[in-house]
Amino acid sequence: MSYEIVGANRTEKHISECCLKWCIAKFPLNRIKIKVRFANIKSAHGWVEQKEKREFVITISKDYEYLSELTSTILHELIHIKQWVTKEYDGDGEEEADVQSRKIANMLWNASLI
Questions:
Q1: What is the spatial distance between Cα 16 and Cα 75, in angstroms, rounded to a whole number?
Q2: Which class for 62: exposed (0-12), middle (13-18), buried (19 or more C-beta within 10 A)?
Q3: Can you give the residue range of the structural domain that contains 80?
Q4: What pTM, to 2 d.p., does this model score?
Q5: Which among 19, 22, 77, 107 is least surrounded, fewest beta carbons within 10 Å?
Q6: What confidence score (pLDDT) does residue 111 get?
């Protein structure tokens, strides 16, 4: 998996890289390109769009209150990419992405990996 992070400050970039590197190690995301784009939006915490068969753009709001919220949002969208690539999810995949993103975020913070 290759990735690019744009529009992020130093902290946002660090957290994004930690999340991306963890997902690279744990998820079957071979030959995937991911662009993480930070923007001043208030309509949502984030979303992911598939641009090509193996190319995705994650948009993340810079309007977050806590770094843990930012971490969970990035992971939530990465989990959606994993769901789409593996075609393994229930319903719209939101519940699984919510639960897994919080669990992984807590693990990363508690293990001082972020």
A1: 9
A2: middle
A3: 2-110
A4: 0.92
A5: 107
A6: 86
DSSP-assigned states of every residue in 8-44: --HHHHHHHHHHHHHHHHHS--TT-EEEEEEE---S-
Nearest-angstrom CA–CA distance, 101 and 17:
15
How far apart, in whole angstroms, are the C-alpha atoms of residue 104 and residue 25? 13
What count of Cα atoms within 13 Å lies in the side-chain half-sphere of residue 75? 28
pLDDT at residue 17, rounded to an integer: 96
CA separation for the pair 44, 101 (Å, rounded): 16
Separate counts of helices (H) and strands (E) for the chain: 3, 4
